[in-house]
Amino acid sequence: MLTVQRGVSLRPYTTFGIEAQANYFADIASETDLNTLSQLNEFTELPKLILGGGSNLLLTQDFPGLALRLTLGGIDVVREDDLHIYVRAGAGVVWHELVMYCVTNNFAGMENLSLIPGTVGAAPMQNIGAYGVEIEQLFDHLEAVHIETGEKRRFGHADCRFGYRESAFKHELKGQYIITSVTFRLDKTPTFHTRYGAISETLADMGVTDETMSIRAISDAVIRIRRSKLPDPAEIGNAGSFFKNPEIPVSQFTQLKATYPALPGYPTSDELVKVPAGWLIEQAGWKGYRAGDAGVHAKQALVLVNYGRATGHEILALARQVQASVLEKFGITINPEVNII
Ligand code: EPU
Fold this sequence. Notes:
Blueprint (H helix, E strand, L loop, with lengths): L3 E6 L11 E8 L2 H9 L8 E4 L5 E2 L4 E8 L4 E6 L3 E7 L4 H10 L24 E2 L2 E2 L4 E8 L5 E5 H4 L16 E11 L11 H7 L9 H15 L7 E5 L5 E3 H10 L6 E2 L4 E3 L2 H7 L6 E2 L2 E3 L6 E4 L5 H19 L8 E2 L1
Parallel strand pairs: 2-5, 3-5, 4-20
Antiparallel strand pairs: 1-2, 6-7, 7-12, 8-9, 10-11, 10-12, 13-19, 14-16, 15-16, 17-18, 18-19
């Protein structure tokens, strides 16, 4: 049954662990709850804040509207063909639990995305990705309900307009739909993605050889790497990468490389090179910086952290300082990946 509460602290529902109150708050555990909500006229006009795992969100003020926390569960195999298994998961399923379900059942494709914080419903919003894989590669379709009309709609790959940490749900469809489930297409025969970053080194350290390679081994390696670099939100508040990695013109990259020979870069087209913002931020001197309880993570400069009682404004002020200094030093604008409310 849908219960709408008043004056609820959102601190426990976001991984940044920042205090902010929602005027109204409700858990959405089923499609029935969504139907009930669309019939409650008193909430129609209010702004809505949709919370999955709250792992990509920075709250800088109290929320005057209705915060909805999605807890719709369920993981089911819905279809299968010669090459693929189709798995549907409820929007409230914890992402890593879905990855573990697939790894355990030997459904291949998600192993590089192990341990990403957040929920299934939030995953397509920003096309989550790590270690050479993005969810758009595994995405089949999703189901969503229009917040105001209660109308149910199916979105295919093209409808979502996926990009690097982007989708239509962050832009033209923002705030309109609640994603209720996502169906993924997993492979019966794995393709191992081990080229990115430290994966192959870590697999070697773990004693994994070509003969013993498996999706479980890759998942274990990714978990090891993430634990070594990224802060656990249960211990230190954070929202993963705070900024996106910027893409710059090849000509600018070549010029910068003359001054900074160690500058890493990955071409994304004939004209553009993606540069790691973490490297730029570290070179600008911010890695490990702390002001009060707001800081730049000491092991991965792309992650801003809340050591305890930082406010959203303090984190945002730090983000702006970091942005300004990267722009001044390198002439590159870095943009937040996190949703700032
Ligand atoms: N680097 C530094 N200093 C730092 C951080 C990074 O020099 O403080 C350098 C590294 O040495 C490496 C390069 O930057 O050469 C890339 O670093 P890393 O592999 O850690 O990845 P990233 O580009 O910083 C992205 C994603 C992460 C994802 C990792 C692994 C974005 C915005 N972030 O980070 O995603 O886990 O790749 O695939 O694309 C997230 O989105 O929240 C997130 C954590």
